[in-house]
Write a structure and sequence with these properties.
alpha+beta, 35% strand
């Protein structure tokens, strides 16, 4: 039977006994730190190995533990990932985080032992790139954040401005680091619009130095058109930040007469902010106190911007009264127009009454073309009384141009005839037709 690694059992136990019987002596040695990458390979050198060394042994952890990893004389059962190179250096393949720790190389001489200690750090670089952002601290100070998570050991992060490290700048108030994040707090007096800051990251197993940038900007505002509110209703004024780094603090002021008095939420005022949008809601509008302009104020460490939002408060309109007034005015207008038409054109009224015989004759003659009609009425001396003589002595002449502008004259004769049209007309419709045909 053989143990893993091809070592016979008898030889293995013999080496174990010899190791236990060897007296421990104080060893003089050196130290170093090496880094390996997860999944990579590493070679731990046993430095200052002399040619006179009778044996080289590698230990993991306690240099006096047993069994050792490797011995140049005795092959102990090893992990297949561990091997000896040139009978002195230790090679580890497919590094794992569990391989991290202290390793000791011991060479055994005739009179003394020489030790070389190696601290192995198995590093895992971050898989992403650094991320940068800016925030506003208390007192309107600018805070620059740089984070590069996912690496082991933790990366090193530096903030720079125009190629110079901020750590050596006079405008840095504080600088703190925790695990994978580095924060710089700057005085706002040195800031300007569109200034760019850069964060550079480095890692022990990464040759490249990835970076990220932050550009700070003064806030920019936009608002809705002026609002109108009826007395007793509610209205909402909106203010929006379209640009600004870091995020601006939004507040509402009543007007420019009291620029330092902010509107506090409560009572009839409700203030809500979602992201870069702030809304001021005024409940139960009052014409005497709520009308006018309001100031939306946006401020960050870079600067300050203000925007006026105006509100007009009106009395509600009586819709029922307005509709009634419109109806009354419409009726008055119709009656006025009707009276004017009847005043200047009374014939429209005559058409509504039954026509007399003469009028009927004129109407019947309209379709006969342009005809000149002459009607004479003379006194008939036989069998007429005084009333007939007086009336028959009057001569009536009716002249009409049918289908022309002189039709109105015939209608006026009709109007003068009165109720006794047959007595004063003197000419029947039949005689009018006969005379017309003779003509």
């Amino acid at each position: 039977m053989r143990l893993p690694g091809g070592t016979p059992p008898a030889r293995f136990f013999l080496a174990l006994c010899v190791w236990r019987l060897v007296p421990r002596r104080e060893a003089a040695g050196t130290e170093e730190v090496v880094f390996g990458k997860v999944g990579g390979n590493i070679l731990l050198l046993c430095r200052n190995v002399s040619k006179e060394a009778t044996e080289v042994v590698w230990f993991q952890g306690d240099p006096h533990s047993f069994p050792p990893l490797f011995s140049s004389k005795v092959a102990f059962p090893p992990d297949v990932r561990f091997s000896l190179v040139d009978n002195s250096s230790l090679r580890i393949t497919e590094l794992r985080v569990q391989d991290e720790g202290n390793y000791t190389c011991k060479e055994v001489l005739n009179k003394t032992d020489h030790e070389h200690r190696v601290q192995l750090l198995v590093a895992n670089p971050p898989h992403s790139t650094p991320k940068c952002w800016a925030e506003t601290s208390s007192g309107l100070m600018l805070q620059l954040f740089c984070s590069w998570p996912g690496g082991y050991p933790h990366p090193t992060l530096h903030w720079r401005e125009e190629g110079h490290d901020l750590e050596n700048s006079s405008w840095v108030i504080s600088s703190t680091s925790s695990s994978d994040t580095h924060v710089e707090t700057l005085n706002s007096s040195h800031l300007s619009h569109r200034k760019v800051f850069k964060c550079v990251g480095s890692h022990v197993v990464e040759q490249e130095e990835p970076a990220c940038t932050v550009e700070i900007k003064i806030p920019s505002l936009e608002s809705e058109p002026p609002k109108t509110c009826f007395v007793g209703d509610n209205v909402t004024l909106t203010c929006r930040v379209t640009e600004g780094t870091p995020a601006a603090r939004l507040t509402w002021l009543r007007d420019i007469t009291q620029p330092e008095v902010e509107i506090q939420p409560g009572g009839r005022y409700l203030i809500a902010q979602e992201g870069n949008v702030s809304r001021l809601t005024i409940r139960n509008c009052s014409q005497g106190t709520d009308g006018g302009c309001y100031v939306c104020k946006a401020q960050n460490p870079v600067g300050l911007r203000e925007l006026f939002v105006c509100l007009t408060v009106k009395q509600p309109v009586n819709v029922v009264g307005a509709v009634g007034a419109v109806v009354v005015l419409s009726l008055l207008a119709i009656l006025t127009i009707t009276g004017v038409i009847l005043y200047y054109n009374p014939l429209l009224c005559l058409r509504a009454f039954p026509p007399t015989a003469a009028c009927s004759a004129v109407r019947r003659n309209r379709d006969l073309g342009d005809v000149l009609v002459l009607v004479d009425s003379e006194d008939d001396d036989e069998g007429k009384g005084e009333e007939e003589t007086a009336s028959s002595s009057t001569k009536h002449e009716a002249m009409a141009v049918v289908n022309g502008n002189s039709v109105q004259a015939a209608y006026l004769n009709c109007l003068m005839e009165g109720n006794d049209g047959e007595q004063h007309g003197g000419v029947s419709p039949q005689e009018t037709r006969e005379e017309t045909r003779g003509t």
